[in-house]
Design brief:
Elements: E1 2-6, E2 9-12, H1 18-30, E3 34-46, E4 59-66, E5 72-77, E6 88-101, E7 105-116, E8 119-130, H2 132-142, E9 147-151, E10 154-158, E11 163-167, E12 170-182
Antiparallel strand pairs: 1-2, 1-9, 3-6, 3-12, 4-5, 4-7, 7-8, 9-12, 10-11
């Protein structure tokens, strides 16, 4: 489940009207081969699953773009937030991911970083999926500079182990799409 926050109003992501769905389809057709900049202002999680013996985790997030042929590319990885189930990543300056295909799938994977003897190991904590194109369309439709998206359940396929997992927690991102340009 996911929700879009727009100036105090919460919109369920899967309950668009027929008119909105038509508008989204038209926008997608017009911008199908476009590139964009994804600007991220803030990322946070709440109620994440504990992965450490201490009852906490050391979560980090990574952004992976996957094209229509299934080829993935790691775009960015956050530092780990230490011993927390409520991580926040706030940026002094917004984080820009440039030249991102507007309609490629964007997976935001949450993992726990563990130091085991001399090597670092990561444990899957959940993931969320979105497309920058849908974010751009919501921004345009609502006339917003930036959009807050909250995912109320983290689940999905552990990309490394290729296993379906359902985990607890919520995930929130505040972002905007800029510089939409046709290839």
């Amino acid at each position: 489940d996911y929700f879009f926050q727009t100036e105090g109003e919460t919109l369920p992501g899967d309950q668009f009207s027929a008119e909105q769905k038509s508008s989204h389809k038209k926008f997608k057709h017009e911008t199908e081969k476009s590139l964009c900049t994804l600007r991220i202002y803030e990322i946070s999680g709440a109620g994440l699953i504990a992965k450490d013996h201490s009852g906490k985790s050391d979560p980090y997030v990574q952004f992976i773009s996957t094209n229509s042929k299934g080829k993935g590319k790691k775009l960015w990885k956050s530092p780990a937030a230490k011993k927390t189930l409520e991580p926040e990543w706030k940026f002094k300056e917004p984080l820009d991911i440039e030249e991102l295909p507007l309609w490629d799938d964007l997976t935001i994977e949450i993992k726990d970083k563990d130091l085991v003897k001399v090597r670092v190991r990561s444990s899957f904590m959940g993931l969320v999926n979105l497309t920058p194109g849908t974010l751009a369309w919501i921004q345009k439709e609502a006339g917003l500079e930036k959009v807050e998206i909250q995912f109320s359940r983290l689940s999905g396929t552990d990309l490394k182990e290729k296993k379906d997992r359902t985990v607890t927690g919520t995930f929130r991102i505040v972002a905007s799409v800029l510089n939409v340009k046709t290839k």
